[in-house]
Structures are given as C-alpha cells and as structure tokens.
Design goal:
Keywords: Transcription, Transcription regulation. It holds the Pfam family DJ-1_PfpI. The chain has 14 helices and 13 strands. With 347 residues, it is an alpha/beta fold. It has two domains: 169 residues, 3-Layer(aba) Sandwich (Rossmann fold); 132 residues, Homeodomain-like (Arc Repressor Mutant, subunit A), CATH 1.10.10. A seven-stranded mixed sheet has the order 5-2-1-6-7-11-10, sandwiched between helices. The chain has a two-stranded antiparallel ribbon with strand order 3-4. β3 and β4 form a beta hairpin. It is globular, with a radius of gyration of 22 Å.
C-alpha cells in the first residue's frame, strides 16, 4: 500500500507595511488590523511593519513606532502596502522611501497604496498606464504630476492586476477587506468586518459611497452579478426586468433571490446605493441639485424627501453639519430624461 504524502501546511501570506516619518497612522493601522483580525478566522497572514532603515518612525500622531525589520532584509512579500501622509508628497515620496518601495515591490506578488501613498508608486512608474485612485483632495495633483496614470478620483479603491490603490483612511480598510475576500472568500471577510465592528463595507472600484455590510452577496451568485451592475452605475435608469434580462433570469426569480440572500428587494438595494452616493457627493462639496442628478434622483426635491425621511434633515442641512468647508458647484443640471420604472430614477 502506497504511503500518503505528508501534508505541508500552507505558509501564512506575508503582508508588509512600509512606514516612514510622518506616515498617517490610520492609513496603516486600519488595514493592518483587518489582516490581524483575519487570523482569528483562518490564521493566514503574517503582518510586518517595515521602514527604510529598520529604525522606528514618527507617525502623524507624533508618537514613535517600532518596526519589525528594514525593508532590504525582507526576501519576499505576498502584499506590499504603502500608506500615505498628510505631508506633501514631495516631502515623503522620495529618497529612502522610494528606494525601499522599489526594492520591496520587485519582491512582492501584489502592491497596494493607501491614500497619498499612490504618489510613491507613481514616482516609481508602477502606475503608468493603469487606472488608480487616491484621496479626492490629492487626485488633481496626482493627475497633473503623472499624466500617464488614469486617475479615477471618485473611486474608493481601484485594482488593476497585481496593483491596487485606495482613496485612503477608511477606504484602506475597504480595500483590505476586499483582499481578504479574494484570499479566503466573502464569509471570512464578513466575519473580519463584524469582528472589527465595521458597519459599512464599500464595494471595490466603485464610486466613493458605502453600502451596508449585510448587502454583499456571494461572489459567484446571480445576486452578486446584479449588485455589481448596480454599483457600477447607480444613477443609470433601469428596471428590475432590465437587470433580470442581463443575468438571464425572470423578474420573479431575481426578486426571490434578493430576498433570500440579502433580505431586501432589487429596488430597495438600489435606493440604498443612491442614498449613500448622495451622502458622499454632499460630503465632498457637490451642490444639492448636482448631487440629485449624479446619484440618480429625479430632482432636488426628491433628494430632499429622501434625506428628511431617513435622517430628519435636508440635504443642505446635512452638508452644513458634516462639512465645514464646502465646494460649491453652481452649474445647473440638465433635465433628467430616459425611461422610469421600478428601478428608474428615484422619485
């Protein structure tokens, strides 16, 4: 009888965070905790804090943080993460930081930037010819400095092959959850988010808005395909029948699947997406009228009714409450046309 081959345990994926003086603490702490929390479920990650020299660094909080090793002592990483900083990119995206990231990136299976960490990848040419994002307040500067990059300023995070960029801060947590989902499936990612008490999980590569964590269907399901379609363009006028045709099922079957998997209807799901998109637009400084158009509402009045019903305040009151400095966009929206239906523009 032939002997069985020994079972070789799969080694943990090595996740390296390159830290430097002035690094924004939340840019690395948030994503790092996602991978650490995942170890409670699957024990699958080794998280390493690195610096160009191996010396401790001073974070944005002013405290000193020790690291595990110098960048050039690490043989290989499954994922390299480059956080950002509130400092000007010309201050931190240079010299020893660039050298350290260049060496680590060459030895990493995938490379990730958080917030203005994208400037480091850009300076090394790692984003040339690729779509990428960063925090919206840095996006124009990234596009100006590096015209070879397709800067998608309104995305939470963007993945292109083995390179990913995120909008920063909390969006880094969203991206880390997406990577955990890639590695170990939606159930593990959901358990991680629940363990961290993350209420909102936002979809990768979509507009900068959030959807409830519960509203994430299994990756290969019909419902997931439909929610991905919705999230790719929440303002698109369409009906349940339109979406059902795109996935080759009946309206009745699609509605039943939504109830079973997400405990909601297709129309309710889209309404939630549009509302969260409107919130993000207002927080970023868009006018109420423009927000209504871009988020798929039929009018500013329709948007006002939705905000009053959900939050008890109007869109303008919400904007004043949550933004101290608002960019005004006075351009009037064009008339909304196109077919309406169960999933047409919100009325």
């Amino acid at each position: 009888m032939a002997s069985l081959a020994p079972i070789v345990p799969r080694r943990p994926r090595r996740i390296g965070f390159l830290l430097f003086d002035g690094v924004k603490a939340l840019d690395y702490v948030g994503p790092a905790e996602v991978f650490v929390e995942a170890n409670q479920a699957v024990g699958a990650y080794e998280v390493l804090l690195l610096s160009p020299t191996g010396d401790e660094v001073t974070t944005s909080l002013g405290g000193r943080v020790e690291v595990h090793a110098a960048a050039d002592t690490i043989d290989a990483l499954d994922t390299l993460v480059v956080p950002g900083s509130e400092q000007s990119p010309s201050t931190f995206a240079r010299g020893a930081v660039l050298d350290a990231v260049a060496g680590l990136a060459a030895r990493s299976s995938r490379v990730v930037s958080i917030c203005s960490g994208a400037f480091v990848l850009a300076a090394l040419g790692l984003l040339d010819g690729r779509p990428a994002t960063t925090h919206w307040k840095f996006a124009a500067d990234l596009a100006r400095r590096y015209p070879a990059i397709d800067v998608q300023a309104d995305r939470i995070f963007v993945r292109d092959g083995d390179v990913a960029t995120s909008a920063g801060v909390a969006a880094g947590i969203d991206l880390a959850l997406a990577l955990v989902e890639d590695d170990h499936g939606a159930d593990v990612a959901r358990r991680v988010a629940q363990g961290l008490l993350v209420y909102l999980q936002r979809s990768g590569g979509q507009s900068q808005f959030s959807t409830p964590l519960r509203a994430r269907a299994p990756q290969q399901s019909v419902v997931r395909r439909v929610t991905d379609l919705m999230e790719s363009d929440p303002a698109r006028a369409c009906t349940v029948a339109d979406l059902a045709r795109e996935v080759n099922v009946s309206v009745r079957h699609l509605t039943r699947l939504f109830r079973e998997e997400l405990d909601t209807s297709p129309a309710e799901y889209l309404a939630e997406l549009r509302f969260e998109l409107a919130r993000a637009r207002l927080e970023a400084g868009s006018s109420v009228a423009r927000t209504a158009l871009e988020a798929g509402f039929s009018s500013a009045e329709s948007l006002r009714r939705a905000f009053v019903a959900r939050l008890g305040v109007s869109p303008s009151q919400y904007q004043r409450r949550f933004r101290s400095s608002v960019r005004r966009d006075e351009r009037a929206p064009s008339a909304v046309d196109g077919p309406r239906g169960a999933l047409g523009r919100a009325s």
